[in-house]
Amino acid sequence: MEKLIKTGRELRYARRALFAFACWFSMPASAAMVYSNTFQGTVGSEWSNTSVASAPHPDYVVDPRLFLGEFGNETVSLSLNGLPTHGFTTVSFELYLIRSWDGNDTDVVNGDPLGPDLWSLGVAGGPTLLSASFSNGNPAGQSYSPSPGALSCNTGYNAAYPAGTYNPMTGASECYSLGYTFTDPIVTDESMDSVYNFSFMFAHNASDLMLNFSATGLQGLNDESWGLDNVQVAVAPVPVPAAVWLFGSGLIGLLGFAKRRRVVKP
After folding, report:
1. What is the pLDDT of residue 109?
2. Which stretch of DSSP H or E encloses residue 223?
3. DSSP-assigned letter for residue 248
4. What is the number of alpha carbons within 13 Å of residue 266 lying toward its C-beta?
5. Handedness of CA 166, 146, 47, 57 (dihedral sign)
6. Helix (H) and strand (E) counts for the chain?
7. How does 146-177 read in b/e, with b if 16+ C-beta sit within 10 Å?
């Protein structure tokens, strides 16, 4: 156990350092970081919901992996005021999807639709940056994929789907790493969670910004929930050069590869 905790702590620090470096390197020289939160301390009033949870995996017993959550069918907003003059904004974060997300499944069980289970991010008064379904194992698949040929975090999922539908956990950087389990009439205490790394850049020049993170179609928190970690917001007068963004995305991809090698389904 001591070895597991030590390894988990080292990988956790490496994960955060690499994620932060990728976000920093991906910004032009004139970019300014205006917000950053790892949720290891006090969560301020900039968040509409300040709940904080700890991942239950044994790796995080001594050094907790805290995050903003758990949340269900609701919108959680981040409001920032007094931003410096800028023309573009970048938001980067980790999305935790916890327990039995059912993706595209629309079956009804005991009068309760399983899905679709949707997660979205939007800018108040501006664009929707992401709106997609996610699955933590339901064979109905999900609509999210970073690219048509992207692989699932768990290579055990290899079903053939029609265009626009992808394997569960496609594009996730971590599988089964948070320590959450789910029990249904068939399986008891099945490991079930995933982590996605996201970064979005959008045109924005107002001094105030509200980001709305939300989910719909979920069952109760003991069945399906979500959370956020390592949230960063930066502003810049010009767009980020494409080549630099690719480099930053590549670093995050390498981090995800390392996680896939470390974390496997028990």
Report:
1. 83
2. none
3. H
4. 13
5. positive
6. 2, 15
7. beeeebbbbeebeeeeeeebbbbbbbbbbbbb
Burial class (CB in 10 A: 0-12, 13-18, 19+), 89: buried
19 within 8 A of 252, measured Cβ to Cβ: yes
Instruction: Report the distance separating Cα 40 and Cα 121, nearest Å.
Output: 23
Q: Say if residue 254's pLDDT is above 50.
A: no
Distances (CA, A) of 39 to 34, 119, 197, 205, 220: 16, 21, 16, 27, 24
Give the span between the Cα atoms of 83 and 86, in whole angstroms: 8
The three-class DSSP label of residue 114 is: coil
Strand partners, 195: 96, 174
Give the three-state DSSP class for 101.
coil
Letter string b/e over residues 49-69, b meaning 16 or more CB atoms within 10 A of that residue's CB: eeebbebebebbeeeebbbbb
Categorise residue 50: left if φ over 0, alpha if ψ from -120 to 50, beta otherwise: alpha
pLDDT tens figures, 112-162: 888 899 999 999 999 999 999 999 999 999 999 999 889 898 877 778 888
Cα separation values, 248 from 23, 199, 226, 259, Å = 7, 10, 25, 17
Dump strand ranges (E) for 100-192: 108-109, 112-113, 118-123, 128-133, 174-175, 181-182, 190-191
Do 76 and 68 touch, CB atoms closer than 8 A?
yes
pTM of the model: 0.80
Residue 36 DSSP SS3: strand
